[in-house]
Amino acid sequence: MYSQAKVIAGGLAHIPVVIAVFYFILTTFNKRALKFVEEAKTKKPEAKDVEPKKVAVSKIETPKTETPKIEAPLVVKKKHADVPVNIYRPKTPYEGTVIENYSLLKEGAIGRVNHITFDLKDSDPFLNYVEGQSIGIMPAGEDANGKPHKLRLYSIASTRHGDNFNGNTVSLCVRQLQYEKDGETINGVCSTYLCNIKPGDKVKITGPVGKEMLLPDEEDANIVMLATGTGIAPMRAYLRRMFEATEKEKNKWNFKGKAWLFMGAPKSANLLYEEDLQRYLTEYPDNFKYTKAISREQQNTKGGRMYIQDRVLESANELFNMIEDEKTHIYLCGLKGMEPGIDEAMTKAAEEKGLNWSELRPQLKKAGRWHVETY
Ligand code: FAD
Ligand code: A2P
Question: Total domain count for the chain?
Answer without folding.
Answer: 2
